[in-house]
Design brief:
CATH architecture: Up-down Bundle
CATH class: Mainly Alpha
Order of helices and strands: HHHHHHHH
Structural class: mainly alpha
Number of domains: 1
Number of helices: 8
Amino acid sequence: MIATGHVSADNAIKTPQFWLLWTVLLCNVTAGIGLLEQAALMVQDFFRNDAGVSTVTVAAAAGFVGFLSMFNMAGRFVWSSVSDYLGRKVNYIIYLGVGMVAYFFLATAGGTSMVLFIALCALIASFYGGGFATIPAYLRDMFGTFEVGAIHGRLLTAWSTAGILGPLIINRLLDAQGEPGTLEAANYRTPLLTMVAILAVGFVANLLVKPVNARYQEPDTLDPIAEPAH
């Protein structure tokens, strides 16, 4: 699904494809930031002994956040490269679809095994990084090379929105359970399942993406690399 024509930034925001991809990025980033926002406290709360004391030290929790950051970075390299072979839409099906499964198991079974917990969180972090890195190529496939930088800049408003929305959702839902750092795994179930629902919205939006109608494209005589005349 690669565009043969080119769409200007002004026309791009008039297309349903732009707003579908805006929603896709919003949901993917919201879920990723939602996890990273509470990762240190969450790993401590998920693993407590019979006396209610966390078996994860503060230093280990900080190291866990660093570990997730490495997967976030690695996801940007690995998943964006994989998208060259699978296609951008298929990659986002993976990010969002497998992400839903990962969040579901994190919510329902994450506290049963430290290895499972770490593996699920690392996978989610990699999808966050991969989704962020793949979106410029997805835009190029949809709208061509003409003004794709400007289109990407406008789409990044979804990232800014998610930077507020992710922590806000997680913090509000956790505050209703008590104070993070003093909770148990069961208290995270509602916030994590909410992330499943958010990813489901992005998953549907991605499935609805189709080639841009030719009426939005620039005339064939326009050089797709050159700047428009003013």
